[in-house]
Design a protein that fits this description.
Helix content: 25-40%
Structural class: alpha/beta
Shape: globular
Strand content: 15-25%
Largest sheet: 8 strands, mixed
Low-confidence stretches: none
Order of helices and strands: EEEHEHHHEHEHEHEH
Length: about 250
């Protein structure tokens, strides 16, 4: 499991007012309706972010993370993966802790995820402006797909991922061309650091500017406000993601 049910993201190093937040339903180009959460900063955003959650889909952690990004000045959308196989989230707007993600994750596809990301990007631009640069930020399953997007054709300006799996990036690594941030837990039992560094080298060879950071001793899912011993790593991770956003800002 990527996070405890009650886990929440740490605060960003820069904070401001959040003007609007909520949950909503988006529609992908193939007609699929899926659940999402958004948060908008009070100041005009120069960058948007699409958040790709872990295997649980739209968990409250990612609704809170959209808020955190808005506090940092980015327009944010976090979305759920399972509109095609499980329908919309319930009345709470998020997936419950007992959601059977195990039966739905194998039914996701890169094409479906990309269609949902594209719809989230369109929503951000409808709320802000048509030329808003957008980055993706993912976690575990979502981190893998965020790195994969660096080798795809979606209209994004950069990609960041926490504790992803290189095997899920696949052949897209050889086509990577976007600025990419890899935030690597040094004690991640799911994926050896060596495998992730090899992925970084493959992506660099393809032309991507890759910022790969290893947090020695940090466990999978260290990006959690409850993990006081990793507070410094959390702040540093924020700095790398926000540096990516500042780099692509228009």
């Amino acid at each position: 499991m990527c996070h405890d049910h009650d886990s929440r993201p740490p605060a960003p190093p820069r904070t401001g007012e959040v003007a609007d937040r909520g949950t909503l339903t988006l529609t992908a180009a193939d007609g699929t309706e899926f659940s999402a959460a958004f948060a908008m900063p009070a100041a005009e955003p120069r960058v948007g972010v699409v958040i790709l959650p872990d295997i649980r889909g739209l968990h409250p952690y990612y609704v809170a993370l959209a808020d955190r990004f808005a506090e940092a000045g980015l327009a944010a959308v976090a979305f759920d993966y399972f509109g095609r196989t499980a329908g919309l989230c319930g009345a709470e707007g998020t997936r419950p802790d007992d959601f059977d993600w195990q039966s739905h994750i194998p039914r996701t596809t890169a094409e479906g995820i990309d269609a949902d990301v594209a719809a989230a990007i369109a929503h951000l631009r409808e709320r802000t402006r048509a030329d808003l640069p957008v980055i993706t930020v993912g976690f575990c399953f979502g981190g893998s797909h965020s790195w994969r997007i660096s080798g795809g054709q979606l209209d994004v300006a950069g990609c960041a991922g926490f504790y992803g799996r290189p095997a899920m990036v696949g052949d897209a690594a050889a086509s990577a061309h976007l600025p990419t941030v890899m935030l690597i837990a040094g004690a991640d039992a799911a994926t050896p650091v060596e495998d992730q560094m090899k992925l970084a080298e493959t992506m660099r060879a393809a032309g991507a500017d890759v910022d790969a950071v290893v947090y020695d001793g940090a466990p999978h899912s260290f990006f959690d406000r409850a993990f006081g011993e990793w507070a410094e790593a959390c702040q540093d991770a924020w700095e790398h993601v926000l540096a990516l956003a500042d780099r692509v800002a228009a």
